[in-house]
Amino acid sequence: MTQQTNKTDFDLLLAMRHDNGADFWATPDGRLGIEKPISTLTALMIISELNISEDSEALRGAADLVLAAIREDGRVRIAPKAAIYPCHTAHAAAALCRNGYAEDKRVQSIFTWLLANRFKDGGWRCNKFIYGRGPETEFSNPNVTLLALDAFRFSKKYLDSKELDDAVETLLDHWTVKTPVGPCHYGMGSLFMQVEYPFLRYNLFYYTYVLSFYPKAQQDQRFKAAFEALSQKLDDQQMLKVEHPNRKISHFRFCQKGCPSESATSRYGEIVKNITIRPV
Predict the structure, then answer these.
(1) Mean pLDDT of the 97-114 span
(2) d(Cα 45, Cα 92) in Å, to the nearest integer?
(3) How far apart are CA 242 and CA 251, in angstroms?
(4) Which of helix, strand or coil describes residue 186?
(5) Alpha-carbon torsion (231, 234, 237, 241), positive or negative
(6) CA-derived radius of gyration, the chain
(7) Does residue 3 or residue 114 have the better pLDDT?
(8) How far, in Å, are 12, 125, 201, 216, 250 from residue 39 at the CA level?
(9) Contacting residues for 93 by C-beta, under 8 A, at least 6 apart
(10) Whole-number Å distance between alpha carbons of 53 and 59
(11) How many CB atoms lie within 10 A of CB 256?
(12) Where in the chain are the domains?
């Protein structure tokens, strides 16, 4: 069932690959983050949930575009003339790592840049204040930090060190604060608490999933509370239902609103496995 669902959804995704004007979900001028309807980066994030072979022509083509956008210093320029923000670099890193490119030397250069360019609290943020400045903006951006940690979890070198503990702490602290923080004002309201899948945006499921890979989080009561909140979403058959799908792919079979998702439940199983292997 899951294999056939994945193939069907991949076909739906492939049907969008030229919608931005060029191949592999890009625009003719090489922009990789235009969501009309799906960007190259988002397509790669979705592909990583569909168990697609790494030999897939579409996967390799999209990944090659992102790899070519990595600058020598490790930053990623996702549009020819646009500013480069940490969120672009973290998003690109997550998209590539989730599709098997974590050991590529160019991706390793992204890791080096990210580690050297953290905010003072240990997370990451962009110096772009679309909501103005205030006390709440003197924190890293939870979504950027989550994307970066999603990428770093693929590197045992960093996962088993304490080098990322401060970044993990910023996300754990947000569980307590909950109010919008960072320049982009990411909070933990009612939408955050709904099960959203696939992993594209800051929400309870993605938050808990990524943190479950980090020993510092596994041992923390705030993580346990988040996991308990997620566990309450299981139905009587111990399946996880999608409550808030991304509207652009709400017609995909593996993430339909109100329906149990085998793929999402499998990701939930990974969380359980992570905290069982390394007891909290």
Answers:
(1) 97
(2) 9
(3) 12
(4) strand
(5) negative
(6) 18
(7) 114
(8) 14, 21, 14, 33, 16
(9) 76, 107, 110, 111, 114, 147, 148, 151
(10) 8
(11) 15
(12) 1-117
How many whole angstroms separate alpha carbon 24 and alpha carbon 38? 10
Is it true that the peptide bond before 80 is cis, omega within 30 degrees of 0?
Answer: no
- φ/ψ (deg, to 5) at 11: -60, -40
Strand partners, 240: 234
Q: How far apart are CA 52 and CA 55, in angstroms?
A: 8
Contact criterion met (CB below 8 Å) for 37 and 246: no
| Residue corresponding to tokens 């991706």 | 107
Classify 47 as helix, strand or coil: helix
> Among 87-96, 101-110, 123-132, which is the least confidently predicted range?
123-132
Instruction: Please give the structure tokens belonging to residue 172.
Output: 């754990």
What is the per-residue pLDDT across 165-186, written as a single tens digit (0 to 9) for each?
Answer: 999 999 999 999 999 999 998 9
